[in-house]
């Protein structure tokens, strides 16, 4: 039996609970100057690039920012929507929906989101929560697989922020959920849904964002967590080892990154006479530049030019109901012990508040 705190009317007095969904962040506009600002903040993070600072300062400011900002801006322009960058649009919708899904499970929590780089920044969101009286904060990163470059960088930003705060709230941080049943199930449903309309491929390629190989050798568990996700998904789909392939994308710079590289792997598949592949990116919970442009455009071209016949990109989990259920389950497991359960007499009214958030979801066009 599950344990929930006694019905309690003092929520307002003893402080409220908030869940903060954290993701990477994105430029404010698909323009050179905005992309430069974003890349500068991102690539100056010591968790992301471990090159000694004076050397890296020269490379970053002398080569990378001048050349990459314009190129990346063009790529961003190709995926930008009327509401903004896909990553931000999806993250915002996920936060709205998560409140509704947690509300349906009986939890009275506020849900918001922040971005590690760009806006809304982690300090601005945590300051706002403090001003609004939230005294328990659950940090949930949009990275199923832990990496020092992403998850730990989120943690750094949260800790750094609270170093400046006298009265720090109670904090919990989720490290990973790469093998969580509900997450794997959401991925499985997404693949099956795709196969129901398009039939099955010869090979399912599972492409994860890459890392410098040196990070793995220094102890980053990301690589292993990606493989575990892939194995669990393959098992759930009943795929044998020759029916799927794990690859790593988005290599940057000259150093070796995790292999096999997605673009090389799909070319090889085409050369080996594989006619159709489907590509899924299980490490991204929301479509973004890396999936919509790199995979669905560039890698597609790589496969077709090398002789492949059919390429299908399976979208990220985005706002799919099975994913929002999974996210609610993951959050719930980390909320245990905090007095978030709606009280009996307040329940109906607060359930309605949860439903208001679902109607807000409808307004923004997210599926329920
Ligand atoms: C230079 C090193 C990089 C490391 C290490 C890295 C790790 C890493 N990144 C993600 C998720 C995303 N990355 C995205 C974009 C992106 N990533 C890098 C570099 C590194 N990432 C750059 C320079 C960029 C910007 C775009 C470009 O110029 O190519 C995104 C998309 C953001 C968007 O706005 O849509 C995501 C998401 C993970 C999960 C990860 C390590 C596990
Ligand atoms: Fe990245
Ligand atoms: Fe990329």
TrEMBL record:
<keyword id="KW-0627">Porphyrin biosynthesis</keyword>
<feature type="binding site">
    <location>
        <position position="290"/>
    </location>
    <ligand>
        <name>Fe(2+)</name>
    </ligand>
</feature>
<feature type="binding site">
    <location>
        <position position="209"/>
    </location>
    <ligand>
        <name>Fe(2+)</name>
    </ligand>
</feature>
<keyword id="KW-0408">Iron</keyword>
<dbReference type="GO" id="GO:0046872">
    <property type="term" value="F:metal ion binding"/>
</dbReference>
<protein>
    <recommendedName>
        <fullName>Ferrochelatase</fullName>
        <ecNumber>4.98.1.1</ecNumber>
    </recommendedName>
</protein>
<dbReference type="Pfam" id="PF00762">
    <property type="entry name" value="Ferrochelatase"/>
</dbReference>
<dbReference type="InterPro" id="IPR033644">
    <property type="entry name" value="Ferrochelatase_C"/>
</dbReference>
<dbReference type="InterPro" id="IPR019772">
    <property type="entry name" value="Ferrochelatase_AS"/>
</dbReference>
<keyword id="KW-0456">Lyase</keyword>
<keyword id="KW-0963">Cytoplasm</keyword>
<comment type="similarity">
    <text>Belongs to the ferrochelatase family.</text>
</comment>
<dbReference type="GO" id="GO:0005737">
    <property type="term" value="C:cytoplasm"/>
</dbReference>
<keyword id="KW-0479">Metal-binding</keyword>
<dbReference type="InterPro" id="IPR033659">
    <property type="entry name" value="Ferrochelatase_N"/>
</dbReference>
<dbReference type="InterPro" id="IPR001015">
    <property type="entry name" value="Ferrochelatase"/>
</dbReference>
<comment type="pathway">
    <text>Porphyrin-containing compound metabolism; protoheme biosynthesis; protoheme from protoporphyrin-IX: step 1/1.</text>
</comment>
<comment type="function">
    <text>Catalyzes the ferrous insertion into protoporphyrin IX.</text>
</comment>
<dbReference type="GO" id="GO:0004325">
    <property type="term" value="F:ferrochelatase activity"/>
</dbReference>
<keyword id="KW-0350">Heme biosynthesis</keyword>
<dbReference type="GO" id="GO:0006783">
    <property type="term" value="P:heme biosynthetic process"/>
</dbReference>
């Amino acid at each position: 039996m599950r344990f929930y705190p006694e019905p309690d009317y003092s929520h307002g007095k003893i402080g409220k609970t908030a869940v903060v969904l954290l993701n990477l962040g994105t430029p404010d506009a698909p323009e050179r100057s905005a992309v430069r600002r974003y890349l500068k903040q991102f690539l100056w993070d010591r968790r992301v690039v471990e090159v000694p600072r004076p050397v890296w300062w020269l490379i970053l400011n002398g080569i990378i920012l001048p050349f990459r900002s314009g190129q990346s801006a063009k790529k961003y322009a190709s995926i930008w929507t009327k509401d903004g960058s896909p990553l931000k649009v999806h993250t915002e919708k996920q936060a709205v929906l998560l409140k509704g899904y947690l509300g349906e499970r009986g939890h009275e929590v506020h849900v918001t989101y922040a971005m590690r780089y760009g806006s809304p920044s982690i300090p601005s969101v945590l300051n706002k929560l403090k001003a609004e009286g939230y005294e328990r904060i659950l940090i949930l990163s949009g990275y199923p697989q832990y990496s020092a470059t992403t998850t730990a960088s989120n943690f750094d930003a949260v800790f750094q922020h609270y170093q400046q705060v006298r009265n720090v709230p109670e904090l919990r941080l989720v490290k990973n959920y790469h093998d969580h049943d509900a997450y794997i199930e959401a991925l499985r449903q997404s693949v099956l849904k795709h196969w129901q309309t398009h039939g099955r491929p010869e090979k399912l390629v599972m492409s994860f964002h890459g890392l410098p190989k040196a990070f793995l050798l220094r102890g980053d568990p990301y690589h292993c967590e990606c493989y575990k996700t892939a194995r669990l998904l393959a098992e759930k789909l009943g795929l044998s080892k020759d029916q799927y392939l794990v690859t790593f994308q988005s290599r940057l710079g000259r150093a070796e990154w995790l292999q096999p590289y997605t673009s090389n792997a799909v070319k090889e598949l085409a050369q080996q006479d594989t006619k159709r592949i489907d590509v899924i990116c299980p490490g991204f919970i929301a479509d973004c530049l890396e999936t919509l442009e790199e995979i669905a455009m560039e890698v597609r071209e790589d496969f077709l030019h090398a002789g492949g016949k059919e390429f299908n990109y399976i979208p990220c989990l985005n706002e799919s109901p099975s994913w929002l259920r999974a996210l609610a389950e993951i959050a719930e497991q980390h909320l245990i012990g905090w007095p978030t359960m709606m009280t009996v007499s307040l329940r109906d009214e607060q359930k309605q508040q949860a439903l208001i958030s679902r109607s807000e979801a409808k307004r923004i066009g997210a599926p329920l």
